[in-house]
Amino acid sequence: MSKRILSLALTFLLVLSSVAFSIASASNLSSEDQEKVDELKEKKEALGKLIEENRSAIETYKEQKAPVEAYASELASQIDSLQQQIDVLQEEIAALEAQKAEHEKQIASLNQEIAGVEADITQNEIETQDVKAEIDEVYRQFKKRLCEVYVNGSASDLELLLDCDQDSDFSTYLIMVEISQRRAKSDEQIVEQLNQDIAKINELTAQLNAMIAELEVKKGEQQAQIEALNVSEMNIEADKSSLESNQSELQALKEEAFSQIASLEKKSDASAQLIEQYEEERAQIEKEIDTLINSRAAKSANVTVNPGGFIWPLQYSDVYISSSFGYRYDPISGVYKLHGGTDTCCSSGTMGKEVVAAADGTVIISSYMSGGYGYYVAIDHGNGIVTLYGHNSSLNVSEGEHVNQGDVIAYAGATGYVTGAHVHFEVRVNGEKVDATNYCSP
Ligand SMILES: [Zn+2]
Q1: pLDDT tens digits for 153-209?
Q2: Cα–Cα distance between 128 and 123 in angstroms, integer?
Q3: 417 CA distance to ligand 1 centroid (A)?
Q4: Torsion of CA 73, 79, 81, 87, to 10 degrees
């Protein structure tokens, strides 16, 4: 009978709470506060959307960046390989230049030798001219004497002869010449000697000219080698400049890729900054909501709903407490701080297990908190008592909904700030977190 009355009463309560939820809420929370909560939740959702948008934008930038980076690094390795080839060619050119310089040195030395020999030849020519002049002088003297003899007839050898002025027959002339020749004998010897000198000088000149020819041949050989080296060098230079132009093309492509990467990184950084900003705003909003909810719980302290006490949120035989309420080292940050709830698990695995309401009450939060409770539910049990169930994989109730003790409100999971699947079970009295095991136990 009492069960029936209770169920009727509960039905009545449910109807009352659903029909006049805003009025019922008003009894806990002023309509102004309710509006504020609704507004905050809306803002929070909008921020969540923006955060998601920016996260997916960052993902997109990352996806766009990866192939560009691969391309840029491929280009860089091609540029390096070309540089190695260019360096080899540059070394070859340097070696050719060194060889050319060696040949040019030899040509310079040959030119010096040629100049020396040419100076000798000039000297010989001067000497030859001198000797020729001497010979000319001897002839001139001879002719002069001959003419004197002929004109004056003063020479003793001609005493027998007729005077030059008088007509003379040819035999007289011949005799005269013979005499003159006899007197010229010594001149002839001198001339012969001089001619021999000229011959010697000419021979020397010929030798010197031969030497010059030989040196010119050597010089020609050196020049031919330089020409050959120039041809090789030109070919290598052509190869090198072709490689260099390839390289500069690749360099331009690489720079373009880098600027693309930089632009994507800039966009990604901007999105990351926005996410940070939005998350801060969202955390602030969550704090504000939490404060409002705590004040709501405090205001509803005079409502009595839980006659049957509290039950543990995981109703399984293999349930256990994995981390108790109290100060501990945070399993993620390592910071020593208050663990405001009791963590509970099932040894057969916690993921997907039913999470039940610890007592009757009204769902005041059924939401997601990133970096915190994940998917969580908070139930107001009246008397200033609120229970909270964190890190669920999914939620089974809506805010404003009345729940009975043992109703499945969520399914356990590992969302939010966690290292693994568990239920974070909190009991708050007048907004203060207290040890849940004072109220119930697994
Ligand atoms: Zn916990």
Answers
A1: 554 544 444 444 445 555 656 666 666 666 667 777 888 888 898 899 889 889 989
A2: 9
A3: 9
A4: -150
> How far does residue 344's CA lie from ligand 1's centre (Å)?
8
How many angstroms does the Cα of residue 302 sit away from the middle of ligand 1? 29
Q: Looking at the chain, how many residues does it have?
A: 442
51 close to 282: Cβ distance less than 8 angstroms = yes
The class level of CATH for 303-442 reads: mainly beta
Per-residue pLDDT tens over the stretch 378-398? 999 988 899 999 999 999 999
**Of 329, 410, 428, nearest in space to 374 by CA:** 410
Task: Give start-end residues of each CATH 1.10.287 domain in the chain.
Answer: 75-259
How many DSSP H helices and E strands does the chain contain?
A: 4, 12
Cα 415 to Cα 69, 265, 274, 309, 371, distances in angstroms:
34, 29, 23, 29, 9
Confirm whether pTM is higher than 0.85.
Answer: no
Q: Is pLDDT at 3 greater than 80 in this prediction?
A: no
Domain with CATH 2.70.70.10 in the chain: 303-442
Across-strand partners of 387? 379, 427
Mean pLDDT of all residues in the chain? 83
Cα(347) to ligand 1 centroid in Å equals 17
Distances (CA, A) of 137 to 117, 144, 150, 168, 191: 30, 10, 20, 30, 10
Pick the CATH number of 75-259 from 1.10.10, 1.25.40, 1.20.120, 1.10.287: 1.10.287
Distance 422 CA to ligand 1 centre (A): 8
